[in-house]
Amino acid sequence: EIERGREIHAQLHTSGYGGDRYLENLLVQMYGECGCVEDAHAAFEAIHERNSFSWNIMLAGSRQSQLKSDAVRLFASMDLAGIPPDEITLINVTEACSSFDPLDEGRTIHEHAVAISVAVHKLATALITLYGRCGHVADAWSVCTIAARENWNTYTWTAMMAALAAGGQHGEAVNLFQRMGQEGFQPDLVALGINFLACSHAGMIDQARNCFASIDRDYGITASPELFVSMLDVLGRSGGVQEARELIESIPVGGALLGSCGIHGARHLSRR
Fold first, then answer.
1. For a pLDDT cut of 70, what percent of the chain falls above it?
2. Any idea which UniProt keywords this protein has (predicted)?
3. 223: CB partners within 8 A, 6+ apart
């Protein structure tokens, strides 16, 4: 299909439509979605008067092709060209940044978001993820200024929990999980896994035990093997070897318990 696209590209130029920005934008989008980033760049450079859509589709193509640093450089060039970013721009570049932790760029994006009053949960989630991976929990919390709580969704809550846990604030992550439920949000398997991890590190054994026992009733979720492993880690770290033994008998996993048992000198459990 890409060869057919290149044929159309050539026909546009030979038929005199090479200067049509709308068509040139579509060419950039086509190449980007096909993963042909070099062709997309060439088509992008051929656009004489680029608009925000031109920049956004080039940013998206770079991000989707895992060329994260290219996306960040494009964002800087867009700023120098005097093209104001919109929410699509900010989402694309933030998701690119979150893969390799360029904190300064993240803060610049945050400033742009505040300046244009963006209140999009996808952007908030991407910014929280970026700050969390950089270990800047306070900055992650500050994202609330661009996304009021009513604009959050499950992914936003989960990203904030992950940021807290990554920053060593495990008790706060557990508290946020509880608030998430109180405000009517349904956790997914990722949120539950983070909650168990945080409970394990915070020594909040009862909270983890109660949550695990009520997963099906409260959330309609069947415990996955990963959640069993997480619960085993909680019990193992707390020295609950007998309870862990009872749980492990029902699932075909033992590796996670091995490390936990080793912590408490009960390696015999992992050899059952």
1. 81
2. Repeat
3. 212, 215, 216, 231
